[in-house]
Please model this.
Amino acid sequence: MFHGEQAEMSEQEILSTLLASEIRGDLLVLFHKNPGLIDTVDGIARRIGRTTIAVISDVRELLQLGLLKQKRIGASEIVYLDRARDREILESVANHLKTVRIGREK
Amino acid sequence: MKLESWVTDSSLLSYCPTGQDMMGMAIRMRESSSTNPQDNLEWTPKSTGPDQRFAAEKSFSSVLVNTVREAVGNALGRNVLEILTSKGLLDDASNSKEFDRKLQLLFGNGAAVLERIVVKDLNRRLGIRYDSEARFDYGKSLETAKEVCFMESRLK
Model:
C-alpha cells in the first residue's frame, strides 16, 4: 500500500495531517484505545464502521506519517500502531500546542 | 408534539424509558427544538423548578467535560489533554461557542474533527444515533444531547 520514506514535517503540519478528516480522527481513537491492535485495512475499516475504500487514503496518510506500520503476514497485509513513533508524534503535537495562545492560560 | 405537553404528562413520569424510547424522545425534541428561539444551550422546559434545572445543567456539564477529556485524550494522548486543560479548554465546556473558538485557535480545521469525536462519544453515552453523513453543527448536537440528558434525569 505504501512503501515511501517519511517526509520531514513541521509540528503544525503533523497536527493538520492527524486531524485532516473524521476518518483519521476515528483511526487515531481506535489505535490509541487499542495500541496492540493488528488488523488488515478491511478489518480496521469495519471496526470504525466504514468501507475499505473510504478509509484507504487516510490509512495511507498515517502510514506515510509513520504512525502506522504495515507488514505482510502470509497472504494478508496487516497494519498496526508504531508505538515509539506515536509517542514522538504526540510529543511534537504537545510541543506545538504549548506555543499556541487561546487567552486565559493558567 | 410540543415538548412542554409531554414533559408535564404525569403518565410519562411513571415508567423507565428504553434506549429506543429515549431515541424517539431525542428525535422529537430535535424537531421541536427547531422552534426554539435561543441559539445556545440555555434551553430548559418551563415546567421544571430551578433546583431541578440546576441539577440537570450540572449533570450535563459533568458528562460533557468527561466526554471531552476522554475524546481528546483518546485522539491525541494524555500530554496533549493536560496542555489543553492548562490552557483552559475545559473551563465552561458547556458554552459551545467558546469551546469552538478555543478549538479553532488551537487546531484550525482539525477543530471540526475533534468536535465530531466528542459528539460521537457523547451520543454513544446517551443512546443518541450519530450520522456521520449528516451536516454537522456542534452547538445543535450539544443542545440535543443536553435535552436527552435532562429527560433522563427527569424520568429517573
Remarks:
- Confidence is low (pLDDT under 50) at residues 1-22, 25-43 of chain B.
- Chain B has one domain: 3-155.
- Residues 88 and 121 of chain B are 21 Å apart (CA to CA).
- Residues 50-76 of chain B form the longest helix (27 residues).
